[in-house]
Structures are given as C-alpha cells and as structure tokens.
Amino acid sequence: MSALDRLPSGDGDRALIAGTLCLLVGGLFAVTPLQAQLPGALYVFVEVGITFVIFGMLVLGLDLQYGHTGLVNFGHVVFFAVGAYATAMLAAQDSFAGISLGYPWPLALLVGVIAAALLGLVVSATSIRLRDDFLAIVTLATAEIFHSVFVNFEGIFGGNVGILGVPRPIAAVAGDTDTRMIATILVIGGLTLITLAAVTRLTEAPYGRVLRAIRADELVTRSVGKSTIVYKTQAFVYGAALAGLAGGVFALYNGAVAPGFFTIQVTVTIWIGMLLGGAANHRAVLAGLAVIMGLRLVSRFGLSVTPVSGDVFAAFRLVVVGLILVAVIRFRPAGIWGDPQELGVDR
Questions:
Q1: pLDDT in tens, 217-244
Q2: Do the Cβ atoms of 192 and 19 come closer than 8 Å?
Q3: Other C-beta atoms within 10 Å of 305: how many?
Q4: DSSP 8-state symbol, 75
Q5: Nearest to 153 by CA among 163, 143, 165, 138
Q6: pLDDT score at 6
Q7: Which of 128, 248, 311, 343 is the most exposed place for a label (fewest CB within 10 A)?
Q8: Quick count: other Cβ atoms within 10 Å of Cβ 315?
Q9: What is the pLDDT of residues 32-86, one digit of tens each?
Q10: What pLDDT band is residue 8 in, cutting at 50, 70 and 90?
Q11: Where are the domains of the chain?
C-alpha cells in the first residue's frame, strides 16, 4: 500500500468526484449542441457565482497560508494579479495596449501559475523569517508596488487600459450566452472543487499536521527537528500558486485584465470571508466567502429602494459588512463554522 493510499479519505474524495463531474457536464454544455436557458433575472446570480468560484481558489490558498500555517499575507491579490497578467500577456492577440504574444492559452495558464509561485518564492525567501506584523506589511507593500508597476509601465502591461484580446476558451465554443454562462460556472466550479480536494488531502496528511504545529508553536516544532522555514516557504508558495491559477482563469474568463480588477479590495474580501467562515476549515472559508458575496449581491437590489446616492450606499454597505465581521470576531473569534480548539482561541 502506497503512502498516498493511507491518507484519510472523505471530504477530499467527495470534492474530487464532484469537481470532475462539474468539469464533464460543463464541457458537454460547451462543446456539444446542448443548450441552457436562463431567465434574465438569474443572470446577475450566475455572474456573481462565477466570481465566487474564482475567488474560492483564492481563499483556499490564503487559508493554507494563514489558517494552517499562521502566515499573515495582506498582499494575496498580487499573486492573483501576476497570474492573470502573465496568462493574458502570453495568450492575448492584437491587444490595444501592452504585450500580446498569442501563445496557446493552456501554456499561458501554466506560465501564469508558475509566475505567481516564483513571486511567492521570492517574497517568502526574503520575508518568511519576519514576525507576523512585519510579514503583513511586506506583502501589502509588494501588492502596492506591483499595482503601480502595472499602471505605469504602459508599453508592457497596458497601463490603466490593461491587456485586451485575451482568448475566452469557453465562450469560443459555447453556442449562446446562456449556455456559455452555465458552462463557465460549471467548469470553473469544477476547478475550485478539485482545488478543494487537493488542499484537503494535503492538510489531512502528516504534512498538514506539521503546518498546524507551526501555527500553534513554531519553537516547539523546531525542537522536534522540523525545518519550519522550509514548511512555511512551501505553504506560502502553494498559496501563491493557487492565487496565480485563479488569476489565469479569471483572465481567460474575462477576456481582459486591467489594474482596476486587482485592488486591495480583493484581499479584503478574501480575508473577511476566511475569518467569517472560520480559518483552518476549507469548507468554512468557502461558506464565509459565500456569505460576504451573497450580502453584496442582495445589497445591489437595496440601492433601488433607498433614497441615497450610489456612493453613500456603497459606503453604508461596507459599514454593514465591517459590523458583521466585528460581531463575529467578538462573539465567535474562530468564525461561524470554525473550531475554537483547533485555532486555540476562546469561544
């Protein structure tokens, strides 16, 4: 019996099966004459659902870094952006601005993941030994530096216009808009479920127990002969690679990338979702992200019935989300579905 066969099964296996089925069904909708019809009122729900499954890969990567290893990464969006830009620059054809090389999109997506992982390796190699608050500052600064680079190096990254002409593989083969949207959410949702299966298998293995030991007490973990720097670096790179995958998928879904898609608000949304659901619990962080994005979706409809401007309403929405997070941290510091004993916090 191999070591892999001895790993615990359960949630990871179910997620793998569900993800594979989603990929197959989504692929059938995209490449066969099968068609789907959506009521117009459901379009916005499907669009938000697509964003959710893309962000799902992001929050799983962040949960691997923070929830399981205790690494405070406030610049997660930079790996998302690097994956998206690398994919877009290699795959785009005849972009109005920036570089567009026209390579096949699978190669571009692979390069996007590798680019994000390499950036994660560079950041971790220079900063992983820092204390939590300093690591948070370094990662936040890295995100801001890259955002400025994307805006100011117009000849390479297209400036505020970004990179256009990125191929959209599903849209290219789907027959109509409704079918394209259903196929897209199924295919990307399948990728997210497969990602969930992978990180579940990883963190349920002995490797994951070492990560949680580092989060709980790094000094004790070192005392039993574990190289905590190596494990922390690996966890950071894995999380960055998942963010790069999410970025590449986003570029291929959206057909374009621009700095406005990769602001600090993305990192804030991911962090709130993770803390709200419960760090170190993969399904919980996805549920927390769903709650936050659901609140934003519902609040869209509130603007039409409130006597305030859009800017005021947007600010009020942020206040409400912030109050919800404060209440959860106050009364459920481990998150709604988190395990206080696992995280070592008071109930």
A1: 999 999 999 999 999 999 999 999 999 9
A2: yes
A3: 6
A4: -
A5: 163
A6: 42
A7: 311
A8: 12
A9: 887 778 887 788 899 999 999 999 999 999 999 999 999 999 999 999 999 999 9
A10: very low
A11: 11-262, 265-347
For residues 111 and 99, what is the distance between their CA atoms, to the nearest angstrom?
15
Residues 6+ apart with CB under 8 A from 125: 233
Tokens 């709650």 -> residue: 291
Alpha-carbon distance values, 217 to 185, 203, 235 (Å) = 40, 17, 16
DSSP class of 259:
G
Cα dihedral across residues 109, 112, 118, 121: positive or negative: negative
Measured CA to CA, the distance from residue 71 to residue 275 in angstroms comes to 14
Closest CA to 273 of 198, 336, 217: 336
257 - beta bridge partners?
A: 163
For 215, residues 6+ apart whose C-beta sits below 8 A from its C-beta are: 67, 68, 69, 70, 280
Read off the amino acid at residue 69: T
Measure the CA–CA gap between 58 and 62, rounded to whole angstroms.
6
40: left (phi over 0), alpha (psi -120 to 50) or beta: alpha
Q: What is the pLDDT of residue 331?
A: 83
Q: Extract the tokens encoding 90.
A: 């290699």
**40-52 as b/e: b if 16+ CB within 10 A:** eeeeeeeebbbbb
Could you tell me which residues come within 8 angstroms of residue 189 by beta carbon, excluding any fewer than 6 positions away?
A: 19, 22, 26, 49, 53
267: tokens are: 């990192």
What pLDDT is attached to residue 12? 84
Q: What are the residue ranges of helices labelled H in 128-227?
A: 132-152, 154-157, 169-173, 177-204, 206-216, 218-223
Instruction: Kindly state the tokens that stand for 205.
Output: 């293995």
3-state secondary structure of 172: helix
Question: What pTM was computed for the model?
Answer: 0.92
